[in-house]
Amino acid sequence: MSRSRAVETSRTAPPDARRPSPKPAVAVIVLNWNGWRDTVSCLDALERLEYPRREVIVVDNGSTDGSVDHIRAVFPTVRLLEAGANLGFSGGCNLGIRDALDCGFDYVWLINNDAKADPTALSALVETAEADPRIGATGSVIYHMDRPDTVQEWGGGRVNLWSGRMRIMTAPSDLNYLSGCSLLIHSGVLRRTGLLDERFFLYWEDIDLCRRLLRLDYRLAVAPESRVYHRGSASMGRGSTLQAFYFHRAATLFYRLHTPLPIMPTTALLVRRTIRWILKRRLANIPATWRGVWAGWRA
């Protein structure tokens, strides 16, 4: 079992949490793995949030680049949990989520460490989430970091449960998943659905959570005024063989858990991706993709 510990910092309630306030308390969870520069930049933006009742929880996922010392040097009072090993995205986030639930926060906000939030991003998320008790999770509009006027994701996208094809939406539309890049979830919902499924390790864990949420008749929402700027693929090279392995492993596991006939989307995925890698001349990604599918089938 992985060992985790919290850095001994002054543990306080979120700002204004001890005084009567209509605003819910939000735990902001940032996962770091060998990416302290991105994390410091993310935390710097979070300090400028207008929303008052919040506390940031940084989870270090067994970094080997001195991340803990670097983060502590810049933000000495931030709540910092050390996983002691790489638990994957789902396992690392769950460490922070459990800490937040134990402390009684009303909401958990997952935000990627390679993202920067606009000062009003959290306020807009909470306002949207509080508008309807049927809303179980709320996403932001994600913009490209290097093209801040261009939408990367309008909250999330759709997955076809027969073909397995994922479509990322860049304009308002009917979504069946929200991106974990910026995802606000009510604590009560997490207690009903369970936390992120740690079998996914990396990728598709947010889509899996949304499917479980929808099965319990919760709604997904996007807060149009919540702007988050995302670099993407900061911890793992985009288009690398490692990314290909983990993405297709997670996709296959999702198909097994949530699709009517898993062999159909799995086969379609293999055909599509094999053709894609040939056309892009990334031949090393073909065996990585096939290994990932096999691993996902057995997970």
Compact description:
The protein is of the alpha/beta class and 299 residues long.
Helix content: 25-40%
The portion of residues forming beta strands comes to 15-25%
What is the radius of gyration?
19 Å
Poorly predicted runs = 1-13, 15-19
Number of strands: 13
- Report the structural category: alpha/beta
Which labels suit this protein?
299 residues; alpha/beta; Spore Coat Polysaccharide Biosynthesis Protein SpsA, Chain A; 2 domains; ten-stranded mixed sheet; three-stranded antiparallel sheet; 9 helices; disordered N terminus
Structure, explained:
With 299 residues, this protein is an alpha/beta fold. The protein has helices at 36-46, 67-74, 88-102, 121-130, 187-193, 205-215, 241-258, 263-279, 285-298; strands at 5-6, 26-32, 54-60, 79-82, 107-111, 115-117, 135-144, 151-154, 156-159, 166-168, 177-178, 182-186, 219-230. The protein folds into two domains: 5-230, Spore Coat Polysaccharide Biosynthesis Protein SpsA, Chain A (Alpha-Beta Complex), CATH 3.90.550; 241-298. It is built from nine helices and 13 strands. Helix 1 runs parallel beside helix 2 (67-74), helix 6 (205-215) runs parallel beside helix 7 (241-258) and helix 7 runs parallel beside helix 9 (285-298). It is globular.
